[in-house]
Structures are given as C-alpha cells and as structure tokens.
Amino acid sequence: MGGGLIGLATARELLQRGLKVTLVEKEPRPGAHQSSHNSGVLHCGLYYQPGSLKARMAVEGIASMTQYCAEKRIPHEICGKLVVAADPSEIPRMEALLERGKANGLLGLECLTSEQAKRIEPSIRCAAALRVPQEGIVDYAFVARSYVQDIKDLGGAIWLASRVCSLEKQRKTWRVGLAAPGSLSTKGQEAESIVADLVVNCGGLQCDRIARLSGLRPENRIVPFRGQYWKLHSRWQDRVKNLIYPVPNPELPFLGVHLTRMIQGGIEVGPNAFLALGRESYTFLQPNLKDLWDAITFPGLWRFMLKYPKVTLHELFLTFSRRVFAKEVCRLVPGITPDDLQMGISGIRAQSMRPDGSLVQDFDLAHQPGMLHVLNAPSPGATASLAIAGHLANEAQKALEMVS
C-alpha cells in the first residue's frame, strides 16, 4: 500500500524474491507526493546517529542507488557538497560532524579552510567548511518511473487511483478494501477488494491512518511540515557549483536552508519547515480542514512549539517573507537578494511526532500477523529506497511467521 519510492522499491524487492505482488496507490500516478516533491539530493549518511538504522540505510542506500541509476541510465551525478561553518562558533560542530561521518563509513571527508573552500565554491562566505565528496543529485521522479517499469517487467500489478478504505483480518489473510480501483497492467479492471497473505503499509503521509484501519493504535502522529523551495535567478547558475549546506545545530529539529544544483539544471534554495494546512496541501490556498484539525488537536504539536518557540517563529517568518528567506541564504552565499528568488516547488514531510512533542528520528516499524507498517521513513528514504526495501522484505517475513 503506497506508490512512493519506498513502496515501489519494496514491491520490486518482493517480486524479485518470488512473491506475487499487487501495489495499490490512491493517486492517479506513482510517486505523487514526497517522492517527487524534494530537493533531489543523493544523501550519503553524514548527519545520522552512528549505529542507527537510517545511518546504515544511507550508506548502503547511496551505493545501491548510484549503481541502479548507472545501470538504468538515469541522469545522476556524484558532485559532492560543502557543509559551511558561516562563523567560527560553528567550527566545533562541523568537526563533530566530520567524526560522525567517519563513524558512518563515509570516505574522503576533509575540513577545509576558508581559502580552500572558496576554490570549490567561490561565492560562499565561511570560516571553514567540510567537504563531502560522496553526496550527489538525481531526479527521483525518473527513479520512480523506472521502479514502475521494473515491477511490470517482473509481473507485478499496480493499481492506481485506488484508495485503501478498509482492512479486515480474516483467518490467515487480510482483505484490503479499495474505494476506487484502477490498474496500470489491465485498463478498465475493477475490483472492490484484494485478499492477501501479506500486507505492507508504505502509506507515507497517510501511514498512521492506514495503520488504524487495521486495528493498530499508534501513539505517534504524522504531522505534515511544508517546505518551500525557491529557484535562484539564472545569473547565479554558474556561481553556485554544486551543493552548499549549513552546519546543523543538533539541538534544533530541522537541518536549515541550503542550496542545491538540480540535475535538470538550475539552482534550488530551501526548504523552510512550517505546519502544512493539510497532509497534501502544497499551498496555503488549499487547506484540508480534517488534516488541520487532526494536527492542531494533537498535544504533541503544541509541546513541540513550546519546546522550540524561536524555531517556530523563525520558520514562520521564512514562510511568509521572501526578504527573511534571502537573508538566511546570504549567511552561506552573500549577495542573494529577494528579487533573485523565484517561486519553486513545495514539499510536505511526513514527520512522525510523539505525544511529548519530540520527533521520531529513525525508521519506525510495527508488526501484526501478516502485516508490516512503515510508520516513519525519514530522510534518506528516497536515496536509500532500495536498501530499505531489502530491510522491509526481511521484516515482512517476520509478519508472515506471526500468522503461523
């Protein structure tokens, strides 16, 4: 259930292991949400806690994704990035990041002086920088389309415009009720339900709601955070070479605004992170009242805002002021003006939040007999989708064993 990158990759993996697989997706096309509304970065595992599942998935994932893109001739590039210490106070955090990256198995990391960093990115302003050579860029919408073709070639079925509306446990199977079925493989095919020995919930922005349909009662809630990206004016095309990131503050919940060269051309800046008016509301002109009520009545959201009042206020200003956004970018690359920022895409992060207001940072899986739920799939979910699919296929076996 769910036709994003992780759902598609998992269906592909299960087919390769000899299972008969049907994937259902409520949208009329696969990869319609997080999989195609992102910065297009190939993450190599620099930021993640050593020993965590997502750190391991990131390192395995970028290797498998790079190999896959090369085999399928998907445009991609391992271009490297700079993590910029904008002032001397950030250098100790940058050095700690270096040690974390080494612990995660990253290769070629090196701390650079301001002069050395400017030879790579002449437009930056920094006290020092960390060079990360294994980072890259790709078009994930292209990857999603390739996964779809793989699934079809392996004999799998993909049902589009098919919203899961009920999950009924039978003796040793699950009955999956579909509100509006459709299929890529057989045009015009219609069915009210699918009976399966194994169900895997990769519902992304809707994963907790799907889990509740099965009788599970996860205490954590998906709270949608909207991130706005801006495109830099074409005059900056040759002045930003690759990827420029800030040094993250480990005490704060979000990474911060960064600059990304896109594989299809152009420079993207962003994102901010502020409460979305719906789990799939990409603009403030399209609120979803049910989703909004679901978020604002969740105690965890209010505790989160009380814990991070300055961050909440700052992200609010970033959301509604292009001038403030430009000022934020100028910490990394001076000279960018509000007029240089042109509206780009927006994305929504399916952030799992605990009732105490803390964010779930790692992958969160839940098992039922014959069912596996992916209740949090944070970055690097896109990059590591192939590696995650292998892990989920192993976990799915545990769910099957619970039946017997």
Tell me what the structure shows:
This protein has 404 residues and is an alpha+beta fold. The protein folds into three domains: 1-76 and 137-219 and 360-404, FAD/NAD(P)-binding domain (3-Layer(bba) Sandwich); 81-133, no CATH class; 221-357, D-Amino Acid Oxidase, Chain A, domain 2, CATH 3.30.9. It has eleven helices and 20 strands. Helix 9 (309-320) crosses helix 10. The radius of gyration is 21 Å and the shape is globular.
Q: Top keywords for this entry?
A:
FAD/NAD(P)-binding domain, D-Amino Acid Oxidase, Chain A, domain 2, single chain, 11 helices, 20 strands, 32% helix, 404 residues, 3-stranded antiparallel β-sheet, alpha+beta
Low-confidence residue ranges: 181-190
What is the mean pLDDT? 93
CATH superfamily of the largest domain: FAD/NAD(P)-binding domain
Number of DSSP helical runs:
11
The major beta sheet can be summarized as: 9 strands, mixed
Q: Secondary-structure map with pairings?
A:
Layout: H1 5-16, E1 22-24, E2 41-42, H2 53-72, E3 76-77, E4 81-85, H3 91-103, E5 110-113, H4 114-120, E6 128-132, E7 136-138, H5 140-153, E8 157-159, E9 164-169, E10 174-178, E11 193-196, E12 199-201, H6 207-213, E13 221-232, E14 243-246, E15 258-261, E16 267-270, E17 274-275, H7 289-296, H8 299-307, H9 309-320, H10 322-330, E18 341-353, E19 364-368, E20 371-376, H11 385-403
Parallel strand pairs: 1-8, 4-14, 12-20
Antiparallel strand pairs: 2-7, 3-7, 4-6, 5-6, 9-10, 10-11, 13-16, 13-17, 13-18, 14-15, 15-16, 19-20
Helix pairs in contact: 1-5, 1-11, 2-11, 9-10
